[in-house]
Write a structure and sequence with these properties.
Elements (H helix, E strand, L loop, with lengths): L2 H16 L18 H22 L6 H32 L10 E2 L4 H22 L6 H33 L3 E2 L16 H8 L2
Parallel strand pairs: 1-2
Helix pairs in contact: 1-2, 1-4, 2-3, 2-4, 3-4, 4-5
InterPro entries: DUF4254
Pfam family, one: DUF4254
């Protein structure tokens, strides 16, 4: 089983586990061994899955404004956790390939392996939910047909993205691509960088 096959299996286990209760307040119960890559991937997708449903809830037109604000704060915190975990996965890959010497003409990829894995995790959620819609008995035949067409495209994307990730990892391992990691430098949660937050602090 190659890397993306493992990741896809883990992501779908996380998604299935979440939907047992389908509750954004359900605590994660990670089934994988400590320090294993599978444990990290499961945690990554769990964050994505919970946030997927938080985004659904906040789009309710009749939501109470106070509740919406609380959800927005929760989504911001989730985004930060997601970014931190992606960077942690990249650190795992850096450690894995630390003894690889890139070739003199090695290329630099536009995104790191972990950010590509992030897209694969979100894609697993899209496939899961589009499949539900394509088979929802209460929906019209037209709706199910349209969703099946979209699902077919998503599955092609899954194959292409999986191939691309596996090729990238092989290229790094062979020295054809130089792995470089840049922190995301997110500013909106940082009281020293977000002007709304630091100006508020100066007014006290």
């Amino acid at each position: 089983m190659n890397f993306t096959e493992t990741a896809w299996k883990v992501f779908n286990q996380s998604i299935e586990d979440y939907h047992v209760l389908d509750d954004v307040n359900t605590l994660i119960n990670n089934p994988f061994d400590k320090d294993s890559l599978e444990r990290i991937l499961y945690a990554k997708n769990w964050i994505d899955t919970v946030q997927w449903h938080l985004e659904d809830i906040i789009r309710d037109e009749n939501i109470d404004p106070t509740e919406a604000l609380q959800l927005k704060r929760r989504i911001d915190a989730s985004n930060q956790q997601r970014t931190d975990l992606v960077e942690f996965i990249d650190s795992w890959f850096l450690k894995k390939f630390e003894n690889i010497t890139p070739k003199p003409d090695a290329k630099i990829n536009t995104e790191t392996p972990a950010w590509a894995v992030d897209r694969l995790s979100i894609l697993a959620l899209k496939v899961y939910h589009m499949s539900l819609e394509a088979n929802r008995e209460s929906a019209s035949e037209e709706h199910r047909s349209n969703c099946q067409a979209k699902l077919d495209v998503l599955l092609i994307q899954k194959e292409d993205l999986s191939t691309s990730i596996n090729q990238l990892l092989a290229d790094i391992e062979n020295g054809n691509v130089k792995m470089k990691v840049y922190k995301q430098m997110k500013m909106y949660n940082d009281e020293s960088l977000n002007p709304i937050l630091y100006q508020k602090g100066q007014q006290k």
